[in-house]
Amino acid sequence: MKDHKLHVIHICFPEGKHKVLTMSYDDGRTYDRRLVGIFNKNGIKGTFHLNSGIQDEGRVPAQEWADLYKGHEISCHTALHPTIARCPIDQVALQVLEDRRRLEEMAGYPVRGISYPNGSWTRQIAQLLPTLGIEYARVTGNTDDFSMPQDYLVWKATCHHGHNLIENGKRFLGLKKTQYLYMMYVWGHSYEFAQENNWELIEKFCEMMGGQEDIWYATNIQIVDYMKAAENLKYTLDGERVFNPGFDSVWINFDGRIIEIPGGAMINLKG
């Protein structure tokens, strides 16, 4: 048996990129209209976590959700925004399922993520969520870091937009080591820009971050789906052939070459 050369294979983001930016905003207040407009202007993608059971005059009406958040992601925030760590576990399940049901009725697609209301969660709740069709959950707080999450059910963002936003953005733009995957994740509430009278903060950030050739702009669920697809690639033991059993393309770096692995394709990486 001949000796085989070892290969270096790295997962990449779409088109071979090594950085991803995602935004996460809660509560569905009417200020989302202005925020979505800023995102759209700069090619930024956001995930919007909505409380389907609260429809007061300060919130985006349900009939507007599909159009307003088109191209972004609608996600759960529980139906009535309780502090769920204090709730009976069966009531937590109902809050999530009812939110999903109502959101999906308006969005027209499966809703598969959540941000914990009031940042409230327990390990028992996190373990429950996959049985309710939830594949990721965002906690509150800031990491000031650009690492990929180890546990998508306890997903902590890089920063709230009121915490070192521009500084972290500049650091993120300066990351050039392509052997790593980097993620910048920003969270908050759109009404905070009105309260603080600082819309120029998010406008400056999005103008600075938009249109970068080495950044993939994605929603929360797009990141989850892509990483699952990448992990599901099937390689031969020598690393020279790979099969993608999924539907969407995945990109890898094979010995320094960026290669697209289309859905359903078997690729000879040396060919």
Structure in words:
The chain is α/β, with parallel strands linked by helices and 271 residues long. Helices cover 29% and strands 21% of the residues. The chain is built from 8 helices and 14 strands. Strands 2, 3, 4, 7, 8 and 9 form a 6-stranded parallel beta sheet that branches. Strands 1-12-13 form a 3-stranded antiparallel beta sheet. Helix 5 links the parallel strand 7 and strand 8. 37% of the residues are buried.
How far is the N terminus from the C terminus? 22 Å
Q: In percent, how helical is the residue content? A: 25-40%
Number of strands: 14
What's the story with the biggest beta sheet?
6 strands, parallel
Helix vs. strand class: alpha/beta
Strand content: 15-25%
String of helices and strands: EEHEHEHEHEEHEHHEHEEEEE
Alpha carbon gyration radius: 20 Å
Calculate the mean pLDDT score and round it.
97
Low-confidence stretches: none
